[in-house]
Amino acid sequence: MSSFKCEVVQIRAILPHPNADNLELAMVKDWTVAVKKGTYKEGDKVIYVPIDAVLPLELSDKIGVTPYLSKQRVRTAKMRGLYSQGLIIDIGIVGADTEIGTDVSAILGITKYEPPIPADLLGEVMAYESRFKEYTQIEHVENYAGILTDMDDDVVVTEKIHGVNARFGRFDSEFFAGSHTLSLKDSDSNLYWRAFNQYRMREIVQEDMIVYGEIYGSGVQKLNYGLPRDVIGFVVFDICKDSRYLNWNDIVAFCKSTGLAVVPELYRGRWTTDVLKFAEGKTAMAGDNIREGIVIRPVTERYDLSAGRVIFKAVNKAFLMKDYGDLR
After folding, report:
1. Is 1's pLDDT higher than 50?
2. Which end of the chain has the least Cβ crowding within 10 Å, N or C?
3. How confident is the model at residue 119 (pLDDT cuts 50, 70, 90)?
């Protein structure tokens, strides 16, 4: 899957803002960005800076957006009743002849926000093991809408759970547990090995397998999904076996046979943009929490030359406005 980008794009359309005379809505890819009226027109070449981008202060001061950032981070905003996601920068800052599709994040010093993991959830880091690979970087579906439009197969939509990403693996009869990026030494003092032991991973994880899931609970993130304090939950969202991600039906069957919980399935069928409505509302898990969003993938694994592994996310805009992002 493609990495973080601040891309040169063309504005697809400029729409009037129904609630503000001095604002318009610029459509870039499938994102909607509020802009000052009369600044841009359809077809203009601009730089699109996505949500969760972090701008250097010198740049944000230069383009006059520092007061609108959250500790230099681009966030979802509600502008006179409508959501605005991302930031548009004039192409002139990097040169008007810069080609469409060029990633200018390095030129501008823009980086992706990485949420900190609380120190009390971690432990002592192990040496790197290449087979214990990090999970796919899931990109926003708004960046790759055309790929799903052309799909001939069904998609499955699952709920995106608000917790911490965990992975449990086994290679040469040795077990591994860790966060999205770190492999940790076996200890009951860190969250990942507590979950590993609580959910019987020594009995479940097969050789050359990685089980990916979300650890959640009131001691992990703000959303507790009905769990009492100091109780942790774990749900599986993917499995890699012999270096290949399993098809969704095989993941569900494996979890059913081993007693592991799997993330809630919200929809299965043909892709349409109506599927995005499942990102909104309340969780399908226990409790009365807001839904963080959804993950969309084909029922049968598929890869694309431009996007890599075909798996995307859509985040609940109301969740983003709750300012829970610092805790993910």
Report:
1. no
2. N
3. low
